[in-house]
Amino acid sequence: MKKFIKLFAMPSLLLTFWATLNLKAQDTAKTSAFQTIEKSELEKEKVRYTKTFDSLLLEERYRNIIEYGELLILDRESEISQLPIPYLICAYHFIGNEERSKKLLNQKLRHYNYEDLVRLLITSDIAFIKYFSVKKNREPIITKAINDYKKNEKASDKAAGEQIIRFFINDQLIRKLKYIYKEDDPVYQDKRFQEFKKQDSIQNVNILAFYKQHKKYFSSEEVGKTVSWYQPIILSHYDNIQLRQTFFKELLEKAVKEGRMEKTSYVHFLLRTESFTNPDFFKNLEKRMEEVRKEFDLPNYLWNPF
């Protein structure tokens, strides 16, 4: 009787979850004529659930996440049953149930290589952003990624590759922390911004020291194709204008001449620097792109600020 009363006392969202699951359990197989509709409804359903869990996470209602999430993972549609996993990993961690949190995480990571692990660490899913904002949660995954990189990537300078991986993960993490705070909470947003400036400053110091030590941009042969590709993104966020216009510009010019860097990525960097210094940059962007297409022989060039 207590269980019965509890069910009717649940928030309407949980009743919606129950209703959805029950309806699906009673469904018969649809014909192919309804597949497009089913897919459309599935995407809408995923959006609804994601918004709900995001809202609960921002409000730190971890036990509600667990209550709803453990129910939803029973759904027979795999895309729905997998959706609450990141939220459960995060919620169980923050209520102190590390055993359940780690079990769910390890199940998810079972077949991940280093590229998959890096993508997970820099995801825009707020559950994982919040989970990996805790150093003790992200460091074992970073170590796992680097170990896989060293073991399986074909690269001649894996020590440099490891450092670039660390730069890239940190670059993305510190920029995405804003998503785990409510937009209308100025206290938390200010706290987040101050932490961002602090971490970004440290990152910039380390990046400059790294490239001054090695005096080169690393090629795909040296650090692997994926890791080499991380470099333009890291450098796009370097915010010392003077050093962008001198040291890094010269470094990247040399990289293009030596075939270490694609010309397109170099032009992205140049225009990114201009966007920091020219107040009319975006107003004149189309004209500027037309100019660099001719100057650098890139007829289809479109600027990507990363």
What order do the helices and strands come in, and which of them pair?
Layout: H1 2-9, H2 12-26, H3 35-58, H4 62-72, H5 78-81, H6 85-94, H7 98-109, H8 114-121, H9 126-132, H10 135-152, H11 158-176, H12 186-214, H13 220-223, H14 225-236, H15 241-257, H16 263-277, H17 285-295
Strand content: under 5%
Oligomer state equals: single chain
- Class derived from helix and strand content: mainly alpha
Helix and strand succession? HHHHHHHHHHHHHHHHH
Taking the sheet with the most strands, its summary is: none
**Gross morphology:** globular
What are the segments in which pLDDT stays under 50 over at least 5 consecutive residues?
1-34
**What is the strand tally?**
0
Descriptive notes:
- This protein is mostly helical and 306 residues long.
- Among the domains are: 8-19 and 38-109, no CATH class; 111-219, no CATH class.
- The protein is 73% helix and 0% strand.
- It has helices at residues 2-9, 12-26, 35-58, 62-72, 78-81, 85-94, 98-109, 114-121, 126-132, 135-152, 158-176, 186-214, 220-223, 225-236, 241-257, 263-277, 285-295.
- The longest helix is centred in the middle third of the chain and has 29 residues, at 186-214.
